[in-house]
UniProtKB/TrEMBL annotation, chains A, B:
Function: SbcCD cleaves DNA hairpin structures. These structures can inhibit DNA replication and are intermediates in certain DNA recombination reactions. The complex acts as a 3'->5' double strand exonuclease that can open hairpins. It also has a 5' single-strand endonuclease activity.
A GO BP annotation: DNA recombination
Nuclease SbcCD subunit D C-terminal domain mapped to chain residues: 269-351
Family matches, as InterPro entries: Calcineurin-like_PHP, DNA_Repair-Maintenance_Comp, Metallo-depent_PP-like, Mre11_N, SbcD, SbcD_C
Taxonomic superkingdom: Bacteria
Species: Abyssicoccus albus
Subunit structure: Heterodimer of SbcC and SbcD.
Protein name (record): Nuclease SbcCD subunit D
Family: Belongs to the SbcD family.
Length: 382, 382
């Protein structure tokens, strides 16, 4: 049995005003051809199909055409869940008719309890649910850990996960492993989004979306839990990540293996860290098709660096000053590694504009930052 | 053979901030039950399914559920075209899968030339096309008349309309009949949207959407052309229009008849024309579930009439002062029936606010109106 696992397509995503739809199309074209070779028994797409709750017509069309071709007139079953970027309603529109062609779109709480059954396998679908959504289903939950604990408990209580089938979980969440010494409660308090891997011990295979690296969870104890990674690189943090899909194989004796297969990534990006003078003097060369982020030292003496550099490199998407150890010595001679948020804004402004920050500007930024912090505190408490 | 004709559902429409979705749901529920009785061979929905190019999730859901129930798991074929309120892309999303269940969604130029064939009938679908859209298909057209002339000519040239089948046209446009003395060119120049009924002479039956009255075209010479009317009353002009659907019957000898069947309209509206004092003194009574429009005489002496009346009648949606003959005598003693746009705004402002219009306000309104007129002129020329 061969199961293909992909996720986080983010159709319609813009990265710093660059529209990625053509790169997405190129990548999906490769994926479709790969599937013609693989001839899988099921394809699983684990959430964040679209980048926005209100996808553009171009993004909708790309989804529709891709799914139609992958499905091969009903021959290849497809299981799709919604992620945190998807609108449950928009993604599941027309699911009634797609279901008849073996395309299963799962977006709701109720869907968790009616697994998709394909060739002796059961796919328990856990779309992204906010704690708020779960409260509307009368579950008193605070964190994402609570959400998935409630779901797994309910499945166990109804004895739905059992040995009659191979039990798959398809989810879209931030699973954390490898932290044996910390209690689950600690994890929950540290990051409300984290869910500990041990929660999914009863499933034979767990296919996840949300984290963009295909190797997000590399832990010997949780070899049955996988991230496929995203379709493309969607931030400069992903510069060195391979992009592709996973193949889960189950042999006749029930042995399972998972393998990541890379595709040719059409969206090249590079983070250059170094001296701004080397760039201005053209001592470094960049591929004209590669999108760039500069992390620059020695920037204090250059005015309007950003605009100058954008003119030289139209593919420059992001710029960040890198403060060296000597910049961090305060007037009192102390090392001030932990800059305040206000200082970061002030230094960035002075770097970009080449002018010093006024009292009035400082006050404005200070108030804004306090406002954001208050909002965050409030949203954590609700 | 029995063909059901409906159109102009405008799902998601708001009328003066009143959300009509529940009334639409009630009416569609009746329609679904009526179809269970009628047991039609085809249902035709002639455009303006949604009210907006970006329909709300609630509107999308209502469409999806209604079509699913009407279609009865593929047993009842449905033909749907896009109207001027629909987005071609949004309406046709998932049409590939719906087609397999006998639901045919037609939105493009190319669709015109592949009629839907059902039980010896051909449905030629002419969705709403703007002249701009047709120019993108390399047809040099200016008016709606040009658009449909091009389409009918092309169908004739390819000899697609012929006697092998009963030829239906499904369209969404403003057809005008009964003007024998005027040339088609006059009609075209007078109103760019009008299309003369004689253009459709080669079709056996023409089922239209766009105009909201089921009796929009009552002309002995064009008995084969029908409007079904809209699902609900969508403006106070429609106060007295019945709402329902049409039944087109074709007997074994090929004789055709069309009959309008009314449904129980859940959205009651009333236009009251009379003295404002009768209302303020409660000498007129209104049903509390009926939405109201007041056309009022003697309003000059009442300040803030609108807000007063809204407090008394929460269902009051529109108010309009009615100027009597004596109001229209200018200082020079001449009858000034044709008020300028500026005068209309000025008089309405004074009526609502009970204050006179300042010079500054007059100037502002004057400029705005000129701006709108310029925009209109420009858009007609492109």
């Amino acid at each position: 049995m061969k199961i293909i696992h992909t996720a986080d397509w983010h159709l319609g995503k813009m990265l710093n005003k660059v529209d990625l739809i053509e790169h997405q199309q190129t990548m999906l074209e490769q994926f479709i051809h790969a599937m013609e070779e693989e001839r899988p028994d099921v394809i699983v797409i684990a959430g964040d199909i679209y980048d926005k709750v209100n996808p553009s017509n171009v993004a909708l069309n790309l989804f529709e055409q891709t799914i139609e071709r992958l499905n091969q007139d009903g021959d290849v079953p497809i299981v799709i869940i919604s992620g945190n970027h998807d609108s449950k309603e928009k993604l599941s529109f027309a699911k009634y008719w797609m279901e008849k062609q073996n395309i299963h779109i799962k977006t709701t709480y109720e869907d968790v309890f009616s697994p998709v059954e394909i060739k002796g396998m059961k796919f328990f679908c856990m779309p992204y649910f906010s704690p708020h959504y779960m409260r509307s289903k009368e579950h008193d939950v605070e964190s994402h850990y609570d959400v998935y604990r409630v779901l797994v408990d309910a499945l166990n209580q109804e004895e739905l996960i059992n040995d009659d089938h191979v039990n798959f979980c398809v989810g879209h969440l931030f699973v954390q492993g490898g932290m044996e010494s910390e209690s689950e409660k600690d994890i929950q308090q540290g990051n409300l989004e984290l869910v500990h891997a041990s929660l999914f011990k009863d499933f034979d295979q767990v296919l996840l979306g949300h984290l963009h690296s295909p190797f997000s969870l590399e832990d010997q104890r949780f070899q049955h839990i996988h991230y496929s990674g995203s379709l493309l690189k969607y931030s400069f943090d992903e510069e060195k990540q391979p992009k592709g899909y996973r193949v889960i194989s189950i042999d006749n004796d029930g042995n399972t293996s998972s393998k990541f297969k890379g595709l040719q990534d059409p969206f090249a990006m590079k983070v250059y860290r170094g001296s701004i003078f080397d760039i201005l003097n053209k001592e470094v060369e960049f591929d004209p098709d590669t999108y760039l982020k500069f992390e620059l030292t020695e920037v204090k003496e250059v005015n309007n660096a950003y605009y100058k550099l954008r003119n030289m490199y139209p593919n420059l998407l992001e710029i960040k000053p890198v403060l060296e150890q000597s910049d961090l010595i305060t007037e009192q001679g102390e090392v001030n590694i932990e800059r305040s948020d206000e200082d970061i804004v002030k230094q960035f402004y002075e770097f970009v504009e080449g002018e010093s920050f006024t009292e009035l500007q400082q006050q404005y930024v200070f108030e804004k930052i306090r406002g954001i912090e208050d909002d965050e505190t409030n949203s954590l408490n609700h």
